[in-house]
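--- STAGE predict ---
source: upstream dedup step, 1 unique chain passed
mode: sequence only
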Amino acid sequence: KEELRAKVLEESKYMFDPVIQDLKSRIHELVDFKEMAVEVLCEDKKLLVELFLRIGRKEFVFIQHISAVMGFVLGVFQMFLWIMLNAGGDGDCHGAGKDSFRCWGGYLILPLSGLVIGYFTNWLGIKMIFRPVEPRVICNGYVNIQGVFLARQQEVSKELA
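--- STAGE serialize ---
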């Protein structure tokens, strides 16, 4: 009985080896790993959010910083616009001059400029994360311009592994 068992085990190595080799060579035909990964991430939303936050943490900080700088620069522009709007005139917005743009323009300029500033800073921040795709070297090689996330591809790949 033991001898038969040993013989079967010995023969099974030779019998299963071609099957295993065939599976190894055709594994991508048999299993769609991309589909499996998408399915797992779609089913486990918490894992997807955690992965997204961990991988994109530096990009989120970048968006905060670029938005703060751009908000400041555009806020200074908004301040000068406000000063120009209120410059001159008699300052009377209660009497006959209450229909002038100077009297009601501030109520329009502040929310609209807030909308433009918010939209522009978000758009610019997201563009700077992913563009340019290929590195662009300027200033005789001293400055390398590439999307923030794309420049970190190697680091992100190691995190995912």
